From TrEMBL:
Protein name (record): ABC transporter ATP-binding protein
Organism lineage: Bacteria, Bacillati, Bacillota, Bacilli, Lactobacillales
SMART domains according to UniProt: AAA
Family, similarity comment: Belongs to the ABC transporter superfamily.
UniProt KW keywords: Amino-acid transport, ATP-binding, Nucleotide-binding, Transport
PROSITE patterns (alphabetical): ABC_TRANSPORTER_1, ABC_TRANSPORTER_2
All residue ranges annotated as the ABC transporter domain in the record: 2-233
Keyword Transport (UniProt): yes
BP GO annotations: L-amino acid transport
Keyword Secreted in annotation: no
Length: 233
């Protein structure tokens, strides 16, 4: 479904991503793990069209998208939940979800609101509240619900557990598995390597802008180098 090939990303003279290649197959959860500053977010922002690569290509369903505008990429079926959530704090919960459906004009939007509220019941309770009044975990749920309102084929999640209490982290990862079970492919960027790999079909380890290891989620969890670097083993 997604193919990233020989990707280079630079910010001025700084090379953030160096010759990165990986793929995401339809129906998978693929986790990309690495320390803070390894380049994970730069990869997602490039896939989303927010950053232009210095070299390399990004193909979605066989079509090159690395030069497309972000809104066109969303129309093709990719939606990103950004690091730090970035909900529209001055809008209500319902209005945030409406922004997620901004590019749509079909008869299923109302049903999709109800689907999001069914998945995240706390959002239904707070649908008329400003997003700024929600807790961090509730804002993460809202950011995910907003992304799902675009009906993505591929959902890009950037550090969904960041800053959340353990109870919310477990709930978010359970919801990610539900999203996959209902047919949405997931690319997960995450510092919580144990949680990310435990739900992943496959994973990649990123260090200083390069992929240094790949395998199934279970293979990477069992890897001594991954244990030592990311799991406290």
């Amino acid at each position: 479904m997604l193919s990233v090939n020989n990707l280079y990303v630079k910010y001025g003279l700084i090379e953030a991503i160096h010759d990165v290649s990986f793929q995401v197959n339809q129906g998978e959860i693929v986790s990309l793990i690495g320390a803070n500053g390894a380049g994970k977010t730069s990869i997602l922002r490039t896939i989303s069209g927010l950053v232009r690569p210095a070299a390399g290509s990004v193909h979605f369903e066989g079509v090159a998208i690395e030069k497309e505008a972000p809104q066109k990429i969303v129309r093709k079926g990719l939606s990103q939940v950004p690091e730090g959530r970035h909900v529209f704090s001055g809008l209500t919960v319902q209005e945030n979800l409406e922004m997620g459906a901004f590019l749509r004009n079909d008869a299923e939007i109302k049903a999709d609101y109800e689907s999001v509220y069914s998945r995240f019941p706390v959002l239904k309770e707070r649908r008329k509240q400003d997003a700024a009044t929600l807790s961090g975990g509730e804002q993460q749920m809202l950011a995910m619900g907003r992304a799902l309102m675009s009906r993505p084929k591929l959902l890009l999640l950037d550090e969904p557990s960041m800053g959340l209490a353990p109870i919310f982290i477990r709930e978010i990862f359970s919801i990610i598995q539900e999203i996959k079970a209902q047919g949405t492919t997931v690319l997960l960027i995450e510092q919580n390597a144990n949680m990310a790999l435990s739900i992943a079909d496959r994973g990649y380890v990123l260090e200083t802008g390069k992929i240094v290891l790949e395998g199934t989620g279970q293979e990477l969890l069992a890897s001594e180098s991954v244990k030592k670097a990311y799991l406290g083993g």
